[in-house]
Amino acid sequence: MALTQNFTATQVVGEPSEIIITDTSTGTDGTVTLMRAYLTKTDSTTLVPDGTATAYVEWNYSAGVVETIDALDKDYCLSIKVDWLTALGAIVYTKTSLVMTSLYNEEFYYDLTQAQTASVTLLSNKNYYENKMKLRVEIDSASQAVTFGGDQYGGQSCLDRATYLRLNEQLFH
Amino acid sequence: MPTVLETINIAKVSMFLASQDIAKAAFKGGFPDAKLANKLYMERKAVEWKYTYDSGNVTDLTKTKNYLFDLCWRAAAAALIVNEGGGGTVIGGEGAEIGGDGGAFEGDLFS
Hints:
heterodimer; A: five-stranded antiparallel β-sheet; 34% helix; B: mainly alpha
């Protein structure tokens, strides 16, 4: 019986540098022994953990296998290509999905809300309100670019603007 | 106090009520906070995100949930609409704002 290849890419709150690839394929194929993932950015380069010599991350296959890849230094819209391979490295199945990671910016956004609970007048500050709204709009827009438009470049542009707001907190918040 | 999920739903309806009242107040001398509907959207999204992805952290969520609830405009009316199952009657009766011409957060209101 052949494999119907599939995977999910998720994140866990508190670990924004990690992306978790889970095999969700159905069926079986005894020839498949390896999985390989390419996390491709908009500039066509790939993300891999520090110390990885290849442009991809590879791990042993078993049904439902979970692989955590610690390679994100900010939020990305990634084209994730996963291959299912034989022991000799021949690709048997492949699947590509556009995935948006947003934990760096979403966690920062929530931190702002937490800060407001201690200082309820913060949101009345025009500069603070407008910049927080910009951050919200950029995150939402990135999500829409990916979900509705399948637009990696548009989504990444939004995330980069959100990241700029996050990394320059002293100027904007 | 309502639960986190109840507060999120109340905030969604409250945002709609606030935007309605802001629009009406334009003819009656202004609304106390013209940005309230936007603020409700912003803060509700933060609480909803935390609730969806990290609801185990109850202490955190309780503070931000209470903060969101405090922001809610006409919270009692919003809660009543939520408890009556989404408030189709109220929204239908109010006319076109939520219909075809697309308020800023129309798609998010009951999503």
